[in-house]
Amino acid sequence: MRRRILLYFMSVILLIVILFQAIFTFAIYHYYYGNIEETIRQHAQTSRSFFDQYHPLYTFDLKEYSSEIIHSFQMPGTNLLLLNSRGEVVQSSSGLAVEKKVNIPTFLKEGGTLKDIVYSPLGEKVMTFYQPLFHQDQVIGYLCYETSLTDIDKMILRFTIITLVLNLIIASAAFILSWRLSNSFLKPIQHIISISSKMAKGQFQNRIETKSPDELGHLALTLNYMADEIQENERLKNEFISSISHELRTPLTGIKGWAETLKDPDYLSKDEIAQGMGIISSETDRLIHLVEDLLDFSRLQANRITLFKHTFDLNELLEEIVFHWKIKAQEKQISLTYSGDCAVFWGDENRLKQVFLNIIDNAVKYTGTKGEVKVSLQKFKKAVSVKICDNGQGISEEHIPHISKTFYQADIKHNGAGIGLAIAYNIVALHGGKIDVNSEEGIGTEVVVILPFLEA
Ligand SMILES: Nc1ncnc2c1ncn2[C@@H]1O[C@H](COP(=O)(O)OP(=O)(O)OP(=O)(O)O)[C@@H](O)[C@H]1O
Ligand SMILES: [Mg+2]
């Protein structure tokens, strides 16, 4: 991965550097060469205009006036050759006799100008510029300016070397930067890989350390969250197994004890036999209830619960539940009261009964003797709200967000498997409603079930 990041970054940077170097060299070459050409061209054109203006002073014989022409039209930094119409050198500004004949191209004969770059016999690079001279619309000779390009080439080379060195420095800096950048990517990724492989092996106590707010930080937080959830589920599963074993053992011990006793009924009074049978029956009910809860829970997990909806009076249902539960509440001297008006509702009556039974069961279970449990129903335009308030032990703040989770028990001292509320939340959600729990430790709990009126 590091190699790929480096390769990618370096290819991009080298491409930019090479492109910049090429454009810069090309631009500087054109700037200097263009400048020289332009200066000579302007001088040559001025010379030609001057010659045009004053040519009546001259005869056709170039040779005779060659010195004057050279003297008037020469340009500093260049060597001026005066050529006749056949291209033979008549005179040069250097004063040296030049035995040279230039092949004049046709367009030059027709009055055009020519710039050329040639190499002198000594191997020197030279720019030449030809300017025809006219007399009565006839080309009678040519001015040929020659200038050496050696110094300019040296200067261009110097600039090119400077920019090349600068570019190499930039490329090295880019290499170091991309190395550090790839490290800053890779180090957290390697850390995530090492911790997540430990998690894959079941070592969930490790957490990924992250402070970066980017996608990697997000990934690390998600993996940490996943580990938290797996650990929490593991804890709940273990708690569930232990509480379920306890829940099963208690009634089974009662049943077994009384079954053993009843084996020999001759020594028992009628009342004792009746009491034993009663305990066996109620403990069996408890077991059936527990198994039903577990079955319901597994159906809910698999989304296999179907609601059988019909129209019924929620008020009547609550009255009935409270009436039956009163006996159980009285055992703990808890006052269980209900208030509400007729509320015709369309839903699954049996499932909703299960919801309220679970919540009222909790209220009575987690409220001490002489406590109070108030159930009330309130009808609104679009929904009905059922409030179950108790002044029992309450739930501490850190447990409230979790009590709807399956097998979660805020208080493990009491009998229970931690399924009741999970089932209730699911059934209410299937009716399009919700359950809110407000509680304060030591003060009491308020559970509000909100059920929207559904269209039949
Ligand atoms: N009214 C309440 N007062 C105090 N704690 C409550 C109350 N209702 C629920 N809880 C807490 O929420 C937890 C979850 O409730 P839930 O009904 O799901 O489980 P449970 O009562 O322990 O077992 P189950 O209902 O399956 O027999 C309980 O263990 C209890 O700690
Ligand atoms: Mg419960």
From TrEMBL:
Keywords of the record: ATP-binding, Cell membrane, Kinase, Membrane, Nucleotide-binding, Phosphoprotein, Transferase, Transmembrane, Transmembrane helix, Two-component regulatory system
Histidine kinase domain boundaries: 243-455
Subcellular location: Cell membrane
Residues passing through the membrane, by range: 7-32, 155-177
Main localisation: membrane
Domain HAMP stretches: 183-235
EC number: 2.7.13.3
Name of a matching Pfam family: HATPase_c
GO molecular function per UniProt: ATP binding; phosphorelay sensor kinase activity
Membrane topology: Multi-pass membrane protein
InterPro entries: HAMP_dom, HATPase_C_sf, HATPase_dom, His_kinase_dom, HisK_dim/P_dom, HisK_dim/P_sf, HssS/ArlS-like, Sig_transdc_His_kin-like_C
UniProt key word Transmembrane helix: yes
Entry GO CC: plasma membrane
Coiled-coil intervals: none
PANTHER family (alphabetical): SENSOR HISTIDINE KINASE CPXA
Protein name stated in the entry: histidine kinase
Lineage: Bacteria, Bacillati, Bacillota, Bacilli, Bacillales
